[in-house]
Specification:
The structure holds two protein chains of two kinds. Chain A has eight helices and 18 strands. By secondary structure, chain A is of the alpha+beta class. Chain A folds into two domains: 4-233, Rossmann fold (3-Layer(aba) Sandwich), CATH 3.40.50.300; 238-331, OB fold (Dihydrolipoamide Acetyltransferase, E2P) (Beta Barrel), CATH 2.40.50.140. In chain A, helix 2 (93-103) crosses helix 3 and helix 2 (93-103) runs parallel beside helix 4 (137-149). Chain A is elongated and about 75 Å long. By secondary structure, chain B is mostly helical. Chain B has two domains: 1-49, no CATH class; 52-267, MetI-like (MetI-like fold). Chain B contains 13 helices and no strands. The chains are: A alpha+beta, B mainly alpha. The A-B interface holds A 48, 51-53, 72-75, 77-80, 82-90, 99-100, 103-104, 131-135, 137, 140, 147, 151, 157, 164 and B 161, 163-164, 166-174, 177, 181-182, 185-186, 188, 265-271.
């Protein structure tokens, strides 16, 4: 496995949306790095640049210190799993798995051994003679993963590999990817738009917006110490509350915002903690807890979201909302976190 | 009446309208000419005869134009479709300036009224000594069919999921290898339809075939049938028999390839 370094990488599409606008990134040997961001943020473009499927307009890509910027994808020795799986429809599962080895002219025994090993690892043994059209979504996903596995490549690139699976299958496949990554000590770059997937999978998470890197950090750090309001709102569900500081009785220059996670808001009788009067607007029970949307009694009727355990208040009732002030984050008028 | 019934009636009308004349042609080719032109009401016993077919092959030597047509149409298809495939793939996939203009120009080439270039082409072919030869027919056919084939295939290649080719490149295949191992097999239905259309164009083409051949040695089926007409009469029985024979290869080809065309080989490639 290998380390990947990206230096000032840029891909600009003339007259269209931003692609990738100058990104520096280091992926360590054996690291699982997640690229996350809203759609159109350039995360897939960045992955395709690393793969060699797109040509950068500026910057360099290095694999183990060797500049591969001008090297075509077939010579980079990286494996990729596509969102659409992109299985060869005219080949059996066995041939799909074997294709990359055949292209590399490996001998017959090696090919058979590797294909069988990958099939065993992914529970594909009984499916080797089927065509992709005869497989279920989950099976196709495993074949796509297996096709990357047989290669023993320098690194794995995964482009939203689970987004076409239904939720139950998704968490199972996620665990499978984590297990494989640990077993192989594989370098992986994993693209997703799902912040939960990013948090649970990544050793480090790179959050992108409009072609730029907003923050690169370990998942918990991203959650606890977001660099700015964009990161704060993107990571965590439901998203962090962002309210004008004066509304919550916190001092600061004009434009200062205070961020409070819904999990840090509680409802009920007066405590010593700071509180606001509010009306219950919408209640969403989730089983283990309840999401409560509140309207504050200020001029703008700002919304405050709380996640509460136990019985939820009735819609329309007046409550006092409390928050743990030591957990509150403060952002300046440009959205950067100051506390 | 529901939409379902309407569709069924429309299908019946279409089938009868399209197959009726062909069935009539084949039936008439098996009847004595007196019967065909006897007028209504028919009298006497119904007798079928193969005399027209026998006469066609023994007296007219109709096997020769069939052979000629097969040679010319096959050769044209074998030249035009591979050329068009490479061209169409480039137009569909490679980043290039002025693709739209190029495609429009290509189409313009095949839009020339044939009659307007028969005379100049005749002179050209005479000068390079290809008049009344098979290459002399294949060459103009290739120039007329390739643009159409490029258009058809470009549209087809564009519809193929790009991820498939990217996957093959990530698996280590070069551009040409990707075309051979992935694009062509997946595009097989499109290639088959294009090849059939090219073949049929050559099989049915009349004007060039008439103008650039001088004797029966290189004449194709449509020309041969047209020249059946004598000074005082048209041997309708033989003409109908010849037309029936001429449609057979077409039917055979379509039946042979229909499964590939309909199967839709891309099923299961990507999600959905």
């Amino acid at each position: 496995m290998s380390a990947i370094t990206i230096e000032r990488l840029e891909r600009i599409y003339p007259g269209r949306h931003a692609g990738v606008l100058g990104i520096d990134l280091d992926v360590g040997d054996g690291e699982l790095l997640v690229l996350v961001g809203p759609s159109g943020c350039g995360k897939s473009t960045l992955l395709r640049l690393i793969a060699g499927l797109e040509v950068p307009t500026a910057g360099r890509i290095l694999i183990d210190g060797v500049d591969v910027t001008g090297v075509p994808p077939q010579a980079r020795d990286l494996a990729m799993v596509f969102q659409s799986y992109a299985l060869y429809p005219h080949m059996t599962v066995r041939d799909n798995l074997a294709y990359s080895l055949r292209v590399r002219r490996r001998d017959r025994q090696t090919i058979e051994a590797r294909v069988n090993a990958a099939a065993d690892a992914l529970d594909l043994r009984g499916l080797l003679d089927r065509r992709p059209a005869q497989l279920s979504g989950g099976q196709r996903q495993r074949v796509a993963l297996g096709r990357a596995l047989v290669r023993e490549p320098k690194a794995f690139l995964l482009d939203e590999p689970l987004s076409n699976l239904d939720p139950a299958l998704r968490s199972q496949a996620r665990a499978e990817i984590l297990r494989l990554q640990r077993q192989l000590g594989a370098t992986m770059i994993y693209v997703t738009h799902d912040q939960e997937e990013a948090m649970t999978l990544g050793h480090r998470v790179a959050l992108m917006r409009e072609g730029r890197l907003e923050q690169l950090a370990a998942p918990l750090e991203l959650y606890e110490k977001p660099a700015n309001t964009f990161v704060a709102r993107f990571i965590g569900s439901p998203p962090m509350n962002l309210l004008p500081a004066n509304l919550l009785g916190i001092d600061g220059p004009a434009g200062t915002l205070v961020g409070i996670r819904p999990h840090d808001v509680s409802l009920g009788a007066d405590h010593d903690t700071p509180s606001c009067r509010a009306t219950v607007d919408v209640v969403e029970p989730r089983g283990h807890d309840t999401v409560v949307h509140l309207r504050l009694e200020d001029a703008a009727a700002s919304e405050l979201v709380a996640v509460v355990q136990g019985p939820a208040p009735a819609v329309g009732s007046k409550v006092a909302a409390h928050w743990r002030s030591e957990r509150a984050l403060v952002f300046d008028d440009r959205g950067r976190r100051t506390k | 009446m529901s939409a379902h019934h309407l569709a069924r009636v429309a299908a019946i009308v279409l089938v009868v309208g399209l197959l009726g004349p062909i069935a009539g042609m084949m039936a008439a080719s098996l009847l004595p000419e007196t019967r065909v032109f006897g007028g209504f009401p028919w009298t006497g016993p119904l007798t079928l005869t193969t005399e027209h077919y026998a006469a066609l092959i023994e007296e007219r030597g109709f096997l020769l134009p069939i052979r000629n047509s097969l040679i010319v149409a096959t050769a044209t298809t074998l030249v035009a479709v591979p050329c068009a495939t490479l061209c169409a793939y480039a137009l569909a996939r490679l980043p290039m300036r002025g693709k739209g203009v190029l495609l429009a120009l290509l189409l313009a080439v095949s839009m020339f009224p044939q009659i307007s270039i028969v005379a100049p082409l005749f002179l050209v072919l005479r000068n390079i000594g290809l008049l009344d030869t098979f290459p002399g027919l294949v060459l103009p056919y290739v120039t007329f069919t390739t643009p159409l084939a490029v258009w058809l295939l470009t549209g087809f290649f564009r519809q193929l999921p790009r991820d498939l080719e990217d996957a093959a490149r990530m698996d280590g295949a070069s551009r040409l290898r990707v075309i051979r191992d992935v694009v062509l097999p997946v595009a097989a239905p499109g290639l088959a339809s294009t090849a059939i259309l090219t073949f049929l164009y050559c099989w049915n083409e009349f004007l060039f075939a008439l103008s650039f051949t001088l004797g029966p040695e290189h004449q194709t089926v449509p020309v041969a049938i047209a020249l059946f007409r004598g000074r005082y009469q048209i041997p309708w029985g033989q003409v109908l028999a010849a037309a029936s024979i001429a449609t057979l290869p077409v039917v055979a080809i379509v039946l042979a390839f229909q499964r590939r065309i309909v199967a839709g080989l891309t099923a299961g490639a990507v999600k959905g």
